[in-house]
Every structure is written in structure tokens, then in C-alpha cells.
Amino acid sequence: MAALEGILERARAGAGATVVVRGEPGAGKTRIADELAARSGGFRVLRARGWQLESGMPFAAVGDLVEPIRDAAAGLPPPAREALAGALGHGPPVPADRFAVSGALTALLRGAAARSPLLVIVDDADWLDLASCDALAFASRRLAGAPVVFVAMVAGRRLIPLLEHAVEIRLGGLGAADALALVGARTPAPVDPAVAGRLCAATGGNPLALAEAAARLTPDELAGRHPLPEPLPLSHGVAAEFARRAAALPPPVRRLLLLTAAAGPQAAAALPAAARAEGLDLAALEAAERDGLVRLGPPGPCFVHPLMRSAVYFAADPGERRAAHRALAAALAAAGAPELAASHLADAALAPDEDAARALDIAARAAESRSASGVAAVAHERAAALSPHPEDRAARLLSAARAWMLAGRLERAAGLADGAALDAGPGRVRFEARRTAGRLALLRGSARTASEILLAEADAAGQPDARVAALLAEATVALIAQGAFRAALATARRAEAAAGRAGDAGVARTARLAVAVALLMTGRGREATPILVAGVAEAGHVAPAADGDAVAVLALRALVWAGETERAEPLLSSRIAALRGAGALGHLGQPLAAQLEIDLRTGRWGALAGRAEEVLAIGRDTGQGHLLFTALRDLATVAAAQGREEDCRALVDELTRVSGSSDLASRLAVLRVLGFLDLGLGRAARAVGHLEEAAWIARGGYGLREPNVERYAPDLVEACLRAGHPEAAARELAALEREARWSTAAWTHGALARCRGMLGAGGEADAHFAEALARHAEAGEPFERARTELAMGERRRRLRRRARAREPLESALATFTRLGAAPWADRARAELAAAGAAGVTAAPPVPAAPAPAAAGVMTPQERRLARLVASGATNREVAASVHLSTKTVEEHLSRL
Length: 896
Prior knowledge:
By secondary structure, this protein is mostly helical. The protein has a 5-stranded parallel beta sheet, sandwiched between helices. A two-stranded antiparallel ribbon has the order 6-7. The longest helix is centred in the last third of the chain and has 19 residues, at 684-702. 56% of the residues are buried.
């Protein structure tokens, strides 16, 4: 466009020009013509277009071109006027030499240019009729000194006279960055840069093919979660332009080109055998090589332009395509490539075909053994579509649902599980399909739907057995997710009884763990913790999506609530590594969310930020809204501790948006975070209002009796005390004491001791603070220890024991500063100044926050990958975590 605008500028001064813009079909020539016309201020624009059907009609394009200025022909000399009118069918034919019409056109354009500069645009000039082509070439040569610019758009099919004296501009393919911009503009779905790069390579950067791909590919394909189809689908226009050249070749060569297109790079090694089976000789492709369609040589034939493959494939008759796939399937099977053979056998199927379905089953199992869940899911789905019998189809749909569940495509998995239940008759497949539907509902955050499905199936099963016990254990998880703790305990007891009658040790262990979690939530931690400790080590190794998986993950989290973080964390780390290795994106978010809670409590807030970004990404990618809830809640808690009020409130607003304003769990989390924020910022009265409502929801709405699950109670005691309500503080302390009686968590007893110290008198307070510090050391929670040290220092200073106050205050200040907990550090600093510490001022200048050096140039995806690599993950583990191919990850890392 810059070159063309420069030519227009020179034409205004009288220097005309002829320009040929050359590019393959779909390169954007018409778009450039439209843009040039729009930017040609001050020019009169005349346009014509070559049409294949009119290429034999003399002067067809000249007629279109001069129609807007035809009235000016009246001023031409009579011979020229009559010759032009006769040629265009506006008058009787006039015998004249072959240059008469060309001369008349030149005179007409010169006269028009005398009034204003002219821009003559001819699109698809390859299809100009020969007479128009000669006339335009004649005129362009003679108007070089006039303010006239001729621009012809050419695909290069044949030489035209305009090329002889024209400036040529070649349109190449787009680069990767422009390809990403174009594809991204054509679809609302996010586009992975590495996918855009592969599309760019597959299309040669052809803009029309890229735009068509954006319209025809699925969001999962564009995001890199599913592989791109082979070959890429093209629009009819692009395919026709490229296929025309192949259509002129002899039939054997066209059949070989089709075999080559159907094989693609993956199956190129099977081409010689497939060609021989079809009675063809690959040497015949030399004719296509001479025509510039393919290149021959190791490792096999390949198309000169990537789009040629798609054009040849889709131009062929469907029956011919199926025959090519059959030949390739046989050759691949003989060569020992059963997975590729199965894919081609499926492409060759005309109707339901059990042989092809079984071959796809084998391919799917092989993909599962490589942890390629998405590939396996596609193979299972294709096998289901080819299954002649409904029960087989149901079983394969169920397998596809489970594979998609592992791959993190929960919505797709849910639809397939429902389809499997509809196709299956009464029996195992239907039972497992409904069970899978319940699991999927729980993963997608629909705990109420999950419990309804699972309990209904358990009730419908009749005689309790191991399957029913497993269903009831999973229903317990769904009930706990709803906050229905008493119902959860009753359901877990049913599961335990059914497992006992069935005599299944594995299910019995799972049921006991479900009982233990329910006991913990209802305030019976001393009874629950030994069961969790005894059973969770084995449960920690339960495979994703296997029986007991949901209970195992919840039990690991419950172990943290029971105060057994040191036991839980290595099991969680092992599980996360295994899930990354298995590519089980749909199940990875749960243990990562549990690890977030450990990071929050142990003061690893920098690690929490990176991990939370991954949890948020998984939640969005897989539709697991409860993961968004967990990550946003923990990020908001850190922001509250650090006094970043604007960030905290933005995160709280987002948490409410993703969870719904009527959701009790969301409301409880929001109130707890806002109460904690206000407490840290010294707004005690506001904190009391938030935290009292949180207590009402937790104790009254849910019946939650374990203080270490939702940590609002100690904050409420402190807020009441700081707001000047010691009676209310004592009342809340008594409630906390009742709940703590059955808790095994060191944090619970440390926070309780701190609250007692804050309300206690004299030396009694010191004893309580000392107990609290011992408990904090046991729990390994630095922020909680610093809060107790701050409270201890405050109390001692108020008792005029200023020298003894300084040591805990200095320790608290160091911890708060390290954690970035600014409002708490300010309080510690003020207390130190009041306690007479040398060199401490109550309000130091706030340093500017350093800007991350690379944050501005990295995309969110790149930051996510960088954090995973920094944590020690291998490329394969990173690929499994973010559900991309290893190659895509490597491309990202190369840019990083």
C-alpha cells in the first residue's frame, strides 16, 4: 500500500504508471484493490474485472471499464467513436484496423484524465478477454505521461501484455505475527500463537486460507487443545484455483497426487506400497513435478505449496478419497503402524464398520498409554460413530467421555456421558455412564446436580454392593462441596456400611476417608484425623478418574485442615507430578488448589501468585468455576494481608461474579476476606460487621465446626476487641473454644491462645502468647506467628514493659516486611517507635514497587509457561499441564 500510494502521488504530478500486483489466489489482491480505491482521494476510479466465463467475449472488460464515462465518447472523432461503440455493442459493427478500438479507448481515458487524475483497476486480470487485454496494454503505454495509473491484479496463470512495461509488486504469504493477528480478528475464540504459526506454515501464509481456517476450525483446535485437521479445509474458491492445475494431468498422476494428499507427512513412508497396490508407479509424479506441483525426493513426494494438498484432496470424488485411505490403511498395517492405519481405515469407512471401530479402539488405548488423552478421546469418538451395535457405541462413548474428562474438556465429556447413558441398556455401561456424569457435574462445580445424580443411581441400584458404596462416597464429596455436612456424614456412613457388606477393601478405605472428612467438618477432628492419617497415604496414589479419586483429593485437603500439612504436601506434590505426566488437565486443578492453600498458610505468597495463575487458567480452560473461586479467594486474602485494597476488592468482585451473588460459599469467602482487610487497615468496626455475618453463614448456614477450614473466628475476636467491645470478644472467644476442643490443628490452638492472651490479664497473657508461639512453630505459619508477636508486643508496651516489648515487635516487623504485609508492618513499626526503639519511625516513606522486568513483553501464556519451567517442570510436564503439544511449548520457550 505504501508503494501504491507513492505511485498515486507521482501521478498527481503527471507521471502515470502501470502496476501489476501479483499474488496467488487468496493472497489479498482484491482487498488491496478495494483499499487503494478507498485511499485514492482526488482520483476518478474506473474498475473492471476479468471473468472466466467472459474471457472469450471481445472487449467485455473494456465495456465494464468505460461504462461510467461512456457519455464522454460523444466528444471523440466520429471514426473512433463508431469503432468503440461497435466494439462494445452500443452500435453497429464497424470495419476497422485492430488498433482503432485501442486508440479510441486511449483518447477517451486521456480526455477523462484532463479533468481529474484517473485510477484504472483491473481485478483478476488473468481472465481478461484478449481484446480487452491488448486495448488496455496499448492505452497504458501511451498514457505514461498523463495522470493515469493502471493497476492490474494478477495470479500468474498466463502472461498478459500489461506485464511488459509494468512495475511489479509481489504479494508473499503473511508472517507468523500477521497470521496470528488475522486469525485472531476472524474468531472470538483465543488463538494460540504456536497454532497460528502452524496454520501459517500449512497455508504458506495465504490470507484467504487463514481466514477460512479461522472460520472452520473449532475453538479447541485454535487454542491448541486439539490437533489441527489433516489436511486443512479450504474454501471452494481457494481450492478450485489450486486444483485446476492438477486437473489437467493424466488420471494416473491425479490418483498419485490424491494418495500423496491423503497420506500427508505422517504416512509418506507408506506411499510406495499404497501406490503399488493401486497399480501405480510413483515415477509418474515426475509430470506433476514438471508442472511445479510437487517436489520429489527423500523422504517422499511433497507439494510445492501447502494449499495444493488441500486443494487436490477436496477436489477429488468422495469415493476416490475413500479408496486412497483404504490403500494407505493396508500399507500402514503391513508396515506395523496400527494407529495410523486405524485412522485411515476410519476415513475409508462408508457405513458403520466394526473392524474399523476395533482398530480405533486399539489406537485409542495406545494413545492413552502415552498420556495423550485428547488423541485417545477423538479415536474413541470415531470408534463410537462407526459402531454398528448400540451397546458397543455406548461403551465407546463412555470411553471418549472419560478421556475428554482427563484432557480437561468437561463440557464435551458431559455430553458424551449423557449420550452413552441413553444408548446403553440396563447394566454396567449405563451405571458407569451415569456415575461419570455425576463426577463431571462435580468437576464442573455443579455439586447439587452431582449429588442428585449419584444418590439417584445409588438408590436405583437396589442391593448395596461395592459399586453403590463407591457412588455414595463420591456423593459425600458433592454434599461437602455444598456445605451439607450433616447429610454428607449420613451418606458416608451408608457408603461405609455398603462397602463392609461387599467385602471390598479398596472401597471400604475410600468410604472411611469420606466419613473422616465429614466428621472433621462437623467438629469431630480428633476422631477424624487418625482415620485421615491412616488412609490418605494409599489414597494419595489413586489414579485420576479411578474409583475413589474425588474422595482421595478431598481427603488430602482435609489433612491440611486437620493440621497435618507436612503429611499432605508431599502426597499432593506427587499427585500433581503424576497428573502432569498423564496430561490429566481435568483433574490437575484440584490438587493444585489444595497446594494454593498450603502456600497461603505457610507464607509462600510469591509461589502462590504463580500457582494461582495456573489454577485460574485451568479453571477457565476446563469450565471448572470452583477452581476460579479458590484461586481468586486465596489471591484476595494475600492482597488483604498486604493492604492492597484496590486489588483485593477487584478480586472479590471477580470472585462474586464467577460464583454468583447468591452462593453461600462465595458470600462466606467474601465476608471473611473483607473482614480481614478491614482488620489489617485498622477499620475494626467494619471488620466486625463482615466477620459476624461470616460466622452466621459458617455456623448457622453450614454447621461448620472446624475453625481451621474458614479462619474467620480469631479475626472476629480481635476485631471485637479493637472495636471496643470486650464482651462481644469474650463471647466469640468462648465459641472458638468450644469448636477448638475437638480440633487437632496446631493453627486452631495457636490462634485460640493468641486470642486468650489478648483478653487475658498480666502474666497470664504472657503464658497464652508463649503457647501460641509454640503452636505457630508447629504449624509453620510465619504470618500467624508475626501476628501473635505483634499482639504480645502491643500488650507489653501497654503494661509499660517497653524493653520486653521490643523483641517480639522487631521479629514481627521483619516477618511482615518480608511478606509485604504493609499495614501489619506499619502497626509493628508504630508500636516499636512507641516502645522507644532507636531509629524507628512510625510512618516511613513507602518505596515504589519495582516493575517486573519482563512482565510487559510476555503474554499471560508465556508467563505461565515460564513459571512452570522455573519450578523445575520438564517440557513434557509443562505441555501436559497447559494442555498443549510439547512442540508448541518448545516454540513458546524459544521465543522466551
